[in-house]
Write a structure and sequence with these properties.
heterotetramer; A: 83 residues; alpha+beta; five-stranded mixed β-sheet; 5 strands; 23% strand; C: 150 residues; five-stranded antiparallel β-sheet; four-stranded mixed β-sheet; 4 helices; 9 strands; globular
Chain lengths: 83, 83, 150, 150
Amino acid sequence: MKLMYFAWLRQKIGCGSEERELPAHVATVEQMLLWLETLGPGYRTALADRKSIRVAVNHEYVGAGYPVKQGDEIALFPPVTGG
Amino acid sequence: MKLMYFAWLRQKIGCGSEERELPAHVATVEQMLLWLETLGPGYRTALADRKSIRVAVNHEYVGAGYPVKQGDEIALFPPVTGG
Amino acid sequence: MIRVQQEDFDVGAEIARLTAGNRAIGGLALFVGLVRDMADREKIDAMTLEHYPGMTEKKLAEIEAEAQRRWPLEASLIVHRYGRLEPGDNIVLVACASPHRDAAFDACRFLIDWLKTEAPFWKLEETGKGPKWVEARDSDDRAKKRWVAD
Amino acid sequence: MIRVQQEDFDVGAEIARLTAGNRAIGGLALFVGLVRDMADREKIDAMTLEHYPGMTEKKLAEIEAEAQRRWPLEASLIVHRYGRLEPGDNIVLVACASPHRDAAFDACRFLIDWLKTEAPFWKLEETGKGPKWVEARDSDDRAKKRWVAD
């Protein structure tokens, strides 16, 4: 599974993109966020304010209950500010 | 008084601009239109459909009751279609 | 700024002039009106735009001043052509620059809506059936009324 | 047509390409977003636009397709820059061409409103107090909602 982080999420986690094995107990976006928080203080800080986090699975916006699986490209980022 | 005609009013009257003495009995736009109709068949045809005629006195849109006087620049034209 | 001219205009050059050195502009809204080759299902070979010199400039300047009063604009421009034009030719350019995009959009649309019903221009279309004066459209009067209740 | 690029764009050249040979276009509405030197009363020296390659192009293409579905467009274009930009620099260009001006205006505004809330771009501003991520605006969410009730 490819994980990507943008803007201040990238800065707080300290990395823009990483490959990880999805643990067997992680089946949804919300479970994935809880698991990521266990990976270190950078992740914990980055993910503290859930309201400020958007999740895209394979380039589509998804909600907390959306299923995740090995092989997905999953991106975490703050609300967008382009244009 | 300077009279100006545009678009199909110009074509029907057969002239784009003319100088005329304002008769003493003509005090308003409506009276002016009635007077112009007496000047010939081209004027009568051009002025037949009052709903399709706009009047500007000294570059301002005015209504039928607006006063006209010698020295004014008065323009008659159909509803505008620019842009 | 307003201009009434026979020559074509270069939108890129107009934008460059309008925004040059102004770093407060966050959004620039533009409208370009062009000659179509069809109108009311009839083929148009060309059109001639007649206008009322003197009143045209006065009306355009008034409309621009009104937009400047209603919205916080950093810059605005109206360029309107007259004379003979062919399909694909530019007719009119309206541009509004503001710190914010909503103001730029609203002011730009206001300008073109009002211009259509206030500025003394008339279009004579050359069609296969001969020349034809374009008739004013109710939809243009309605478009103008959008801005009157404000 | 959509493009995501680091280089600047030339609005005049983009318009020429977009409208070339198309005589059905009566109105062309454009929006250009630029970097301002002030934001929330703070001076901006520069900004860096980060984006999500792949998702950006997908989202922009979806938004453009939606505009094409909603309005009778002859042509449309979104060009969005990324990387480091300074005040006065172009950020984004949106252009919509249609036989009729209302469709061109509505589609253009729809595109920029949706792009602002859907396309994965993030702005990092360089201010006197150091770098600062721009926060999303409620007004942008409201602007997007204009189009949802349709």
